[in-house]
């Protein structure tokens, strides 16, 4: 899962990035509205954290432009404490949720988790596929009730596949959502991670769809 943070307060941007990385997300950072708008336009994010009062281009303008261009990724806006008008403007421009400053980083994390789940059609913080359970709140996974020992890459891969259960996900899409913009991307490594995951959760949960990619679903669910 890949997140973009657009916040001109360098310390706050860093705090959010550190907390999200610790929770297992891949994070890109921007410090003004123009750079942020460009990244949101050019890269596929699972969610964006957007400050409203930004230099170069304000957050509302960036958000309106994304929505006008048909971009549908969930956006969480950060607003000043007393400015209820900012919240209204943000929601009207297409924001999915908001948090008023000052806030606890854990609250932002909880709201991001909920937005990503909702965008993928999951209501609960736990996603289940056969014997595998993904706890999005604790960034943990179990198989048959036993905790899975996963590397950060394996966890991101499992998380993305489970959020998109039943859908065919291409290698390119997996690469785009598992690595940040500076990472040297190689789609062949995805095969290696898929192989490792299958060893840990069982071969029958992740299907290879020839020429298209991979699909995760519980056996017997049909296609």
UniProtKB/TrEMBL annotation:
SMART domains: REC, Trans_reg_C. GO terms for biological process: regulation of DNA-templated transcription. Residues 2-116 form the Response regulatory domain. Coiled coil: none annotated. Residues 124-218 form the OmpR/PhoB-type domain. GO terms for molecular function: phosphorelay response regulator activity; transcription cis-regulatory region binding. This is Two-component response regulator protein. Residues 124-218 bind DNA. CDD domains: REC_OmpR_EcPhoP-like, trans_reg_C. It comes from the Bacteria.
């Amino acid at each position: 899962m890949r997140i973009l943070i657009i916040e001109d307060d360098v310390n706050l941007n860093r705090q959010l990035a550190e907390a999200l990385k610790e929770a297992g997300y891949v994070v890109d950072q921007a410090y003004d509205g123009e750079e942020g708008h460009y990244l949101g336009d050019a890269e596929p994010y699972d969610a964006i954290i957007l400050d409203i009062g930004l230099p170069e281009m304000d957050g509302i303008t960036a958000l309106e432009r994304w929505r006008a261009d048909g971009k549908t990724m969930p956006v969480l806006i950060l607003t000043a404490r007393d400015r209820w008008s900012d919240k209204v403007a943000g929601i009207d421009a297409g924001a999915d949720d908001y948090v008023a400053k000052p806030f606890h980083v854990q609250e932002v994390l909880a709201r991001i988790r909920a937005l990503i789940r909702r965008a993928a059609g999951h209501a609960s913080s736990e996603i289940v596929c056969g014997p595998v359970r993904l706890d999005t709140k604790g960034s943990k996974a179990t198989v048959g009730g036993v905790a899975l020992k996963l590397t950060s890459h394996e966890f991101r891969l499992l998380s993305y596949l489970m959020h998109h259960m039943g859908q065919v996900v291409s290698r390119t899409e997996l690469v785009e959502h598992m690595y940040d913009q500076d990472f040297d991307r190689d789609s062949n490594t995805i095969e290696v991670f898929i192989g490792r995951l299958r060893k840990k959760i069982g071969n029958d949960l992740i299907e290879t769809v020839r020429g298209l990619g991979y699909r995760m679903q519980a056996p017997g669910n049909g296609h």
